[in-house]
Amino acid sequence: MQEVESAATVPRTGRRRSEALPAFFFLLPNIAGFLLFTLVPIIAAFALSLYDWPLISEPKFIGFGNYIRLFAKDPLFGQVIWNTLVYVVFYVAANLVVSLALAVWLSQEIRGIKIFRAIFFLPVLVPPVAISLIWQWIYAPGNGLINALLAVFGLQGPNWLGDTHWAMASLILMSVWQLFGYNMLIFIAGIKGIPQALYESASIDGAGGWARFWWITVPMLSPSIFFAMVMTLITSFQTFDQVFVLTNGGPGSATEILGLYVYNNAFLWFRMGYGAAVAVIMFLFILAVTILQMRLQRKWVHYETA
Amino acid sequence: MMTVNYAALCVSGFLMLVPFLWMAATSLKADNEVLSMPLRLIGSRIAFENYPRAWNYFPFARFILNDLFVSAAGTVLALITSSLSAYAFARLRFRGKDKLFFAYLATLMVPQQVVVIPMFLMMKQLGWVNTYWALIIPWAFTAFGTFLLRQFYMTIPYDLDEAAVIDGCSHFGIYWRIILPLVRTGLAALGVFTFIGYWNSLLWPLIITNQQSLYTLPIGLQMYHGQYGTQWNLLMAASTITVLPTMIIYLIAQRHIVQGITLSGIAGR
Fold this sequence. Notes:
Oligomer: heterodimer
Structural class of chain B: mainly alpha
Order of helices and strands of chain B: HHHHHHHHHHHHH
Number of helices of chain A: 13
Strand content of chain B: under 5%
Strand order of the largest sheet of chain A: 1-2
Radius of gyration of chain A: 24 Å
CATH architecture of the largest domain in chain B: Orthogonal Bundle
Mean pLDDT of chain B: 88
Helix content of chain B: over 70%
Number of domains of chain B: 2
């Protein structure tokens, strides 16, 4: 990004003066909305998290009361954090592995390959509500697709979504199926940008398929992998639709994750301040993980300086 | 070798599509055959009547029109505002540009859940609860749109602007007559992403509407689920109705979507 920018903004004679006035007018419509509907709400959320506000009565300032209550007195919150971390770690890992593997496979240029890419990407754009309903039926005990197939082999499947041992895994499996196609497309584009000569000379040196993948594809693709990992982590912390429809946090609180817990607090139990505090903690998690990634990237992300 | 490759592709592609096939198959089963065992993909007769039944139980036409209106209005607004601001970030020189752009990017990290609670209170103040305004306006000024279009603008050579300046063209003229026609793919990509984002959105419409006359399709489907419980054939018919429009959009705009994702991915560098 740095490089592109400097190339595009090289000072040229005659155009050195500031263009602040036109910039102001070009930015105005977007910035006005951005301030009002993004920046102000963000700041307001932090302020709100310091209040006790059960919508029907007046807000009362309680300092860090909500946070203290979350960590010291809310037995559910620890579980919600744990669930969220389990979901995020397994979902992101599985998403990246599957999307990378399929990208390597589908980056070959053969006839009709675009149709297959389209098939794997298809669920990404479909409404998550519909996806979750379909999978609820796939996971249904008794006659759902999976258990009906297992029954053919004389096996009795569990109640996938109603069993605390299986509900989270079922949620993760569905999410991966639905969304890996996005990263897959990013990786395919990245792989196609890797110079073919690298693979050819590696082959001459006797490198097998696995070695070429590990020593050429992965390092050359590392900027894309980094980008995909950061974005997938950010979005997975916020997961709401899928869990709201598929399990609504259940059974018990086995799949209650942060995204749902914010909604339940603020809009089911009308605890505005408390819900805002949960949302702020969610943001802090995302911030911490993103900063950590930025730090770690120096160790493994390989930027081409050509 | 090639045959094995294709066979493997076909098998995996088929597995990928199984949930949608299962949806379609179930939606055409008669009531008494949905739960019948052993498993059969197609029942003894094809129950097309499930579709009118599902369609008429809820005002689905209304939901679709609502969703269409909200998504289209939001998309147009987002395209206008982001294409203008992206021009400032990609083409103009002003103080604090990098800092401002960084602030935009940083908000991409902020979860929607942080924003919706204050936004709901704000909408209450404005008297916008249960209005189209509330469904459309708040999400039309995204940092993502500015960011994505800036990436597209950066690919256009500067010489074009300079030539236009020499010809006496204003900045608005450059934006309108040179940049915009050259980033049609970028606009199309952002348009599709924004449209789908609105179309699929659940959390915000759930918070801000409680009148059936304002429901969008995801809310409608969710309500349908609540009422029809586990009448799977009707539920799958309703799901098919919900799924089809996005699939059609995808088929039409596939090329733009792929390019949009590719360019936002490269932007990570």
